[in-house]
Amino acid sequence: MDGFSKFITEYKKSDIIYKEGDLQEHFFIINKGKVQVKFEEKDLILITLSKGDFFGEDSLLADQLAHYTIEAIEDSKIIKIPVPSLSDMMKKNKDISLKILKKLSEKNTKTVDSLVMMQNRQKIDLGEEGLPETPEIENEELTAEKLNPGLKVYLVIQRSNRVVQLTKNSTSIGRRDYTTGFVPDVDLTKEDEEKYISRKHSSISFSDDVFYISEEPGAVNGTFLNGNKLNTGVKYELNNGDEITLCHLNMIFKF
User: Are 183 and 71 part of one and the same domain?
Assistant: First the structure.
């Protein structure tokens, strides 16, 4: 990154780097910090990018307007390269071109995964239409797993400001496993770019009118309730407004 140092620009948390519709004239590489790629008009967060990720690739096309809004979610140092300078670098150094292609491919994969997740959530929100049919013999079991519809229970994930409603008596929290296909009820894959959170990290359960949180066996990097580390496999009572921390990721429990 030494050759890019003269292009470093600093952004504060909540700074808008560029908006949808802005003319694209620069290519960006994150040197430190994190940004969100989002559709501002729809208030829709698409993906989070961190150190080493690129954005602004639309600038490689002449007179191209930005498709997304980019917002810094941490104080960040970002390499902002004018397109003519980037073109010169790519012509002189093939390694730079290959790195850019690889990173853009990774970003495209993240974006597609994010869109698929959103589409699946939308199908679930719409109800049974569009979902696979469930054999009638399992209906009673599925109904028994669900919380009373009158209970409105949420997790507010602070890093992304995403709000997740809990609908089951037992809710798994963690990261998806692309190898086995496992997806937890609360999937923190997008928020946990560093991959510190375990795939089956913790769970929230409801019994006898009380909510509990427990850490799953094999989870690493810790689970904390209001700053206190939990012992694996032990249930701890949850109250409205409690702060749950998985490794470094904070969530607020609301009901």
Answer: no
Given a cut of 90, is residue 236 above it in pLDDT? yes
Instruction: Work out the average pLDDT over 210-237.
Output: 93
Threshold 0.90, pTM exceeds: no
The domain containing residue 10 runs over which residues? 2-123
In a shared domain, residues 212 and 181: yes
Task: Please give the biggest Cα pair distance in the chain.
Answer: 68
Q: Domain end: 88, 123, 158, which one? A: 123
Q: What confidence tens digit (pLDDT) does each residue in 140-150 have? A: 334 448 888 88
CATH number for the domain that contains residue 150: 2.60.200.20
Across the range 77-94, mean pLDDT stands at 85
3-state secondary structure of 11: strand
Q: Answer yes or no: do 196 and 245 share one domain.
A: yes
Instruction: Report how far Cα 144 is from the mean position of its chain's Cα atoms.
Output: 30
* pLDDT for residue 197: 92
Number of other residues whose CB lies within 10 A of the CB of residue 66: 18
Residue whose C-alpha is closest to residue 69's, from 133, 128, 136, 22: 22
Angle subtended at Cα 63 by Cα 58 and Cα 68, rounded to the nearest 5 degrees: 40
Which band of pLDDT confidence, cut at 50, 70 and 90, is reported for residue 3? low
Please indicate, yes or no, if residue 132 is contained in any of the structural domains: no
CA distances from 85 to 27, 58, 92, 136 (A): 10, 15, 11, 63
Instruction: Pull the structure tokens for residue 180.
Output: 């086995």
Give the 3-state secondary structure of residue 153. Answer: strand
CB 174 within 8 A of CB 195: no
**Average pLDDT score, the chain:** 81
Cα 167 to chain centroid, rounded: 20
